[in-house]
Amino acid sequence: MILIFLGPPGAGKGTQAALIAEKFGIPQLSTGDMLRGAVAAGTEIGKKAKAVMDAGNLVSDDIVAGIVSERVDEEDCKPGFLLDGFPRTLVQAEMLDKILTDKARKLDVVLELKVDEEELVKRLNNRIMETKAAGKEVRADDNEETFRHRLAVYHEQTAPLIPYYDEKGLLREVNGMASIEDVTAQIHAIFADLEKA
Ligand code: AMP
Fold first, then answer.
1. Alpha-carbon distance 28 to 19, whole Å?
2. What's the gap in Å between 166 CA and the centre of ligand 1?
3. The model's pTM
4. Of 33-37, 136-140, 144-148, which range is least confident?
5. For residues 59 and 49, is the Cβ–Cβ distance under 8 A?
6. Is the minimum distance from the CB of 6 to ligand 1 under 6 angstroms?
7. What number is the average pLDDT over the span 173-195?
């Protein structure tokens, strides 16, 4: 199974993606995590990406598509994989189509986590307070101003993927404001539905 999690920053994509990946025994490919790994390791890609990421902007389509293309060739992606945070632009979606076609693979479903964005800002501020209270470092892109900028980037560049996948008949909506357990249950119900079809 190959699936995409779509939704604004802070919608819970990472949390749900990890739960679903574990349940189905497929890897969670988070381009955000991969890029943060590259920054931490000080690679060439990491050096290019750091300032862009800290400002809440998008890293170039070629860089992220290259990372994903290499990653899906690894053995653990054979049974399928879950994309969390990719694609994020129409160009990336088209690149993904080509990557999958070239590798004779097929996208099964795109899950759109729908959320109330003002509520997300509240959740973010709580998360920052908790992280600080726990004495941990807050991510450089975790502050309200950058977050609102990332939401704007989402609307401008990523939201057009919703009609793109809808037209392909691949889009399924999930109410992302429900509890973590309930969101997982909605996703399982979608999978059950897909199996029947
Ligand atoms: P995330 O952890 O998914 O919120 O990603 C953190 C940051 O990494 C984003 O704000 C972008 O700067 C960068 N990033 C992650 N995925 C992508 C992508 N598919 N395309 C461009 N930039 C990305």
1. 9
2. 23
3. 0.91
4. 136-140
5. yes
6. no
7. 95
